[in-house]
Amino acid sequence: MKLTTMLAAAAFAGGGLLAGTVADAGAQPGQDSEPFRAAEFDFGTRFALPDGLAPEIWNPAKRKLVAGGPMIGGTVRAVDPRTYCAMAGAGYDFIWVEMQHEAISWEQVARMWRTCPGPAAPGARVAYADEREIQHATDMGALVVVVPTVDSVEEAQEAVDWTYFPPLGRRSFGGGQGPREMWTGVPGGYRQTWNDNVVLILMIETLEGVENAREIARIPGVSALFAASGDLGNFSGFGEGDPEYEALITEVADAAVDAGIHACAPLRWANRPSFTCFQAATETANILRGAQAEIQQAEQRFRGTGGGAPAERSGTAALLAELTAQCGAITYEADCHAAVESAASGVRNAPAAERAQVVRRLREIMGAHPNQAARIGEIAAGAGLAITR
Asked: Does the annotation mark 101 as catalytic?
């Protein structure tokens, strides 16, 4: 006879101990108590600092924001640790690793951050407001989290949830090289001071995002709104200088300022009021500009010794370098257009040979980007440099 059959028979025949055990097993303890409600739970003091001790701001990027800015981030699209380290040591407050538009893995990012955790704070533009994306960034060591195309309050709240530890957010304490290696010795402890040190930037890039910007800006935990120069043009059909476009930018900046947080923008807008944090150029743009400047300086020194024939390069070299950096592979149309306008106006009164250099470069760019050719020609003409093709 099977054991289960024997037990059942014994329970039926004896009606005693076994039957009582079965009955007792069905009882539910605490039936008379109130059900547990998470919203009514008082968060504990395990991660609280000692009384009278304020959290220290050890994130250099957050320190810049607290001081009123400018907080400036360099942009890295490569995966070479040496390139990253050069950018991290160049003087930026944080490095914005491009994880939205580049085919980069988190393991590659982790290697770069592990190699050079400073002096610039590690940061990343993730693909979207998602638990996996944001916690990969923070667990790998990010101190600045940038979330693109935030359209709604719900998306913004998700970004806050996965960026911050409880009680403000819902970030899981999963370890990783950030808390376990890179920031394990920070003043006050990583878990205890994280919520006071992380910087969360939400990018407003769509018309829906602009519509909801004021509510988004008021969500606790949002450090800044970023007025996305390129995609606000992409989603609106207008560009810099157009009243419709400028009204969108102003609305985003006003939403941030009115909520008491920061407004971010491309670095070329550093002269616009309201903005206190900025995204600077990519590593490739900096390489081009740096190489051009180095070559120009060497030629000036060479001419200063009286040796050699006069070089053809002039102050136009920097304009040409900027054109190549921003328009060689157009990432942000607005940046390319700004470089075109700067180059055209910069040689308006220059010798014919220098104007010809800029015209030649602009023709090359127009040929490589035929869909931009008409607009580039219009901008150059408006700045006083006619281009015939």
From this structure: yes
